[in-house]
Amino acid sequence: MLIHHLMNCASTCNKEDFKMSVVLDEMKTRRSIRKFKPDMVPADVLDQIIEAGTFAANGRGLQSPIIIAVTNKEMRDKIMEMNRKIGGWEEGFDPFYGAPVILIVLADASCPTAVYDGSLTMGNLMLAAHDLGIGSCWIHRAKEGFESEEGKQILEGLGITGDYIGVGHCALGFTDGAYPDVIPRKDNRVYYIR
Predict the structure, then answer these.
(1) Long-range contacts made by residues 156-160, C-beta under 8 angstroms, separation at least 24?
(2) Count of C-beta atoms within a 10 Å radius of residue 161
(3) Cβ atoms within 10 Å of 140's Cβ, excluding its own
(4) Which of 3-17, 91-105, 142-156 bottoms out in mean pLDDT, i.e. has the lowest?
(5) Which of 4, 12, 19, 116 is the most buried (most CB within 10 A)?
(6) Can you list the domains of the chain with their CATH numbers?
(7) Cα(56)–Cα(118) distance, rounded to whole angstroms?
(8) Nearest one of 156, 174, 167, 169 to 81, comparing CA atoms
(9) Any bridge partners for residue 66, and if so which?
(10) What is the per-residue pLDDT across 18-75, written as a single tens digit (0 to 9) for each?
């Protein structure tokens, strides 16, 4: 693998050894999707995305984040409605933009790096989805949603006990329409101390 070669060659590598990998390209081309087709993501593809989420970096190796995969339309619509009300939108608006799959990331509140770990999990989910041709969008308000009585009941129904913080909803599905263009990066975001 390229990464092992680069780790082993240290100062002896040539500039040609440092070609952009597929991962770096995926990082640069992934965009948030806000219009999804109703078609369900195939189960084997969804499993690969979820697995990538479980391999996210995490503080002290505690692996505190959990992922709830929602493909059931009735439950998806219930969680969507909770999110809509928290966001203050009019009835009929779908804050998940029609995505048929919602991956909810929560993290153990007793873990000091819970939100950071959950955020890295969200990033892995979105990058894996992009790599597999699936659109994604990070939808907020998971914290508020799963602090509510309705959210707590959902967790209890799944047998999830303990104190969990909602980190994000990862909306997944096939992109409906043209894939968004990459916008130029802003200047003055990186500073070097050499």
Answers:
(1) 158/68, 160/66, 160/68, 160/106
(2) 8
(3) 15
(4) 3-17
(5) 116
(6) 28-173 (3.40.109.10)
(7) 9
(8) 169
(9) 106
(10) 666 888 999 999 999 999 999 999 999 999 999 999 999 999 999 999 999 999 999 9
